[in-house]
Amino acid sequence: MARKVVITGLGATTPIGGDVPTMWKNALIGVSGAHTLGDEWVEKYQLPVHFAARVTVPADQVLTRVEAKRLDPSSQFAVIAAREAWKDSGLTTVDNDRFAVAFATGIGGVWTLLDAWDTLREKGPRRVLPMTVPMLMPNGAAAAVSLDLGARAGAHTPVSACASGTEALHQGLELIRSGKADIVMAGGAEAAIHPLPLAAFSSMQALSRRNDDPEHASRPYDIDRDGFVMGEGAGALVLEAEEHALARGARIYGELAGTSVTADAYHITAPDPEGLGATRALKAALFDARAQAQDVVHVNAHATSTPVGDRPEYTALKAALGDHVDNVAVSATKSQTGHLLGASGAVEAVMTVLAVYERKAPTTINLENQDPEIPLDVVTTARDLPAGDIVALSNSFGFGGHNAVVVVRNV
Amino acid sequence: MASNEEILAGLAEIVNEETGLAPEAVELDKSFTDDLDIDSISMMTIVVNAEEKFGVRIPDEEVKNLKTVGDAVNFIAGAQA
Questions:
Q1: Which strand (E) or helix (H) includes residue A136?
Q2: Is A236 within the bounds of a domain?
C-alpha cells in the first residue's frame, strides 16, 4: 500500500488576491483579474492585445528590495507563495534532507532574459548583470524556494507548458510515495506579461482581443469566447506524508489521492479533438486515487476560454466519467484569474483543495451563452458541495500535448 | 574628480543597493568577503556599478586585488587621476 499524501499548507499570489484567503474569498464571489495594461510598451510595439491579469499585490510590496533584485519576477512569486504555504502548514523545524521542492514554470525567467538582451545591445556585455544566468534559468524558482526554506531532498522543475503546475504535484506525490521525501513544497510560478510573450501568444491566435472589455474577455464555455487572458502569479502546496502530518497534529486540508500525466502525441499545439490523451489522464488519475467516477463531485477545469480548447476537455470528461459528468459541479476559475500558464495548475489545485475542505465550488464568471456543445453543469454562483466522502479533480493541459490531472479527496 | 570620502560614500550606496547592508557598515578597513559577506557575483555587480558611477574601468584581473573597501577606494581614486 502506497504512502498516503496529504496537503497541510497553501499559498498563492494571483490576479484575484495576493494571498490564499483573499484569492479564495474573491473566487467564491466571482471577480475579474483582467485589466487594461498601462505600460508604454503596449502602444510602442502596437500589441494586438492591450490587457492582462496582473497580480493584485506587486512582489516588491512583499519582498525586500535586495531579495527582489536577485530574483526574476517568476521566482519572486514562487518565494511569496511558498512562504505563505510554509507558514500555513505550521511546520517549523524539519529534517531538511527529507524535504524536497517541485516547483514548475512554463517559461522561466523571460523578463530577465529579455532585459539582459536589451542591456547587451544598448550598453555592451560589461553591463550584463552577473546574476543573469541564475535569474533566467527555468529552475530558478525551484532553487530559490529550496534555498529560502532549506529543502535538501532535491529541487525539481517540471516543465510542460500550461500543465507544468499540475505536473509538479504529480512529481511531489511520487517523491513522497517512493520514500524519497516526507515533505514537498509543490507549486508553479509564471511572470510572462511582457511584450514578447504577449506578441507570440497573440500571433498564434491564442489570446482574447476583447480590448474594449478586458473584464469580460476570459469566458470559458461561452459561445463568444475568443482566446485566453494572460495571467501571472504562483501557487504553492505543502505535501506531506500522512504519518508525518498526523504525528505533529497538523491541520490537514485533504488528501492528494492520485495524479496522472499523459501525452497526446497528436499535434504540437492543437489538442486532440477526441480528447484521448486527456481521457487517459483522467482515468489513470482516478485509478491512481482508487476512486470511481461516481465519487467525483467537482472539477476545476483547464478551460482557458479558447475556441478550440474548451470542447475536447468536455469530451474527455464525458468519456472518463460517463453519464455521471452531468452530476459534477464544474468551475472554470481562469474566467477570473486569467491563464497563469505554468502556475495555473498550482493555483487551481489550491482552489480545488479548498473546494473539498470547505465544500464550496468557486464561481465561473462571464458565462452568458453556454456553448451548446459543452453541456457541463458550470458553477456560475459559488455552490455547496455534498457532505460525505467526496473527490474533486483539477485538470491542466499544455502545448506539446501534455495532460495532467490531480485528484483531491476529503479526509 | 571625486574625493576619497565621496568615493567611499558612493561605494557604500552601491553596496547597500546590492546587498541591503547599511551604508555606515561599509568602512575602509572592512573586507568585502570576510566582513561584509559579499559573494563573487555581488562583487562583480558592485564593480560594474562603480565603473559607471565613477567613470573608471576596473579590469577583471584587478578585482581579486580589491580585498577591502579601502583597496577599492584607492583603486578608483587612482584610476580617476
A1: helix A132-136
A2: yes
For residue range A139-171, what is the model confidence (pLDDT) as tens digits? 999 999 999 999 999 999 999 999 999 999 999
Collect all residues of chain A within an 8 Å Cβ-Cβ radius of residue B48.
Answer: 126-127, 129-130
Same domain assignment for residues A66 and A171? yes
Candidates B45, B51, B52; nearest CB to A129: B45
- Which sign does the torsion angle of CA B26, B28, B30, B33 carry? positive
Number of structural domains in chain A: 2
Q: pLDDT-derived band of residue A66, with 50, 70 and 90 as boundaries?
A: very high
Chain B residue set in contact with A, beta carbons under 8 Å: 17-20, 40-42, 44-45, 48, 51-52
List C-alpha distances in Å: A268 to A264, A307, A342, A377. Answer: 9, 17, 17, 30
> Which residue of A64, A127, A130 is in closest CB contact with B20?
A64
User: What one-character DSSP code corresponds to residue A18?
Assistant: S
Mean pLDDT of A232-243: 98
- Closest partner residue to A127 among B20, B40, B48, by Cβ? B48
Pairing mode of beta strands A329-331, A296-300:
parallel
Distance of CA A64 to the CA centre of its chain: 25
Q: Quick check: B45 and A130 CB within 8 A?
A: yes
Other CB atoms within 10 Å distance of the CB of residue A51? 27
Residue B1, pLDDT > 80, answer no
A127 occurs within a structural domain? yes
- A302 given a catalytic annotation: yes
Domain final residue, candidates A247, A267, A293: A247
> A1 falls in which pLDDT band (50, 70, 90)?
low
What is the number of domains present in chain B? Answer: 1
Confidence of residue A133 (pLDDT cuts 50, 70, 90): very high
List all residues 6 or more positions away from A122 whose beta carbon is below 8 Å from its beta carbon: none
* A94 and A114 inside one domain: yes
Question: Cα separation of A151 and A142, whole Å?
Answer: 10
Q: Give the pLDDT band (50/70/90) at residue A273.
A: confident
Q: Are residues A40 and A141 in the same domain?
A: yes
Q: Is the pLDDT of residue A281 over 80?
A: yes
Q: Which residue among A156, A244, A298, A302 is the active-site one? A: A302
Query: Is A130 close to B51, i.e. CB distance below 8 A?
Result: no
Domain that holds residue B24: 4-80
Could you tell me the CATH number of the domain that includes residue B57?
A: 1.10.1200.10
Probe site for chain A from B14, B46, B48 (most A CB atoms < 10 A): B48
| Parent domain of A357 | 259-409
Residues B27-63 have pLDDT tens digits of 999 999 999 999 999 999 999 999 999 999 999 999 9
Regarding whether A211 and A93 lie in a shared domain, the answer is yes
Q: Are residues A313 and A234 in the same domain?
A: no
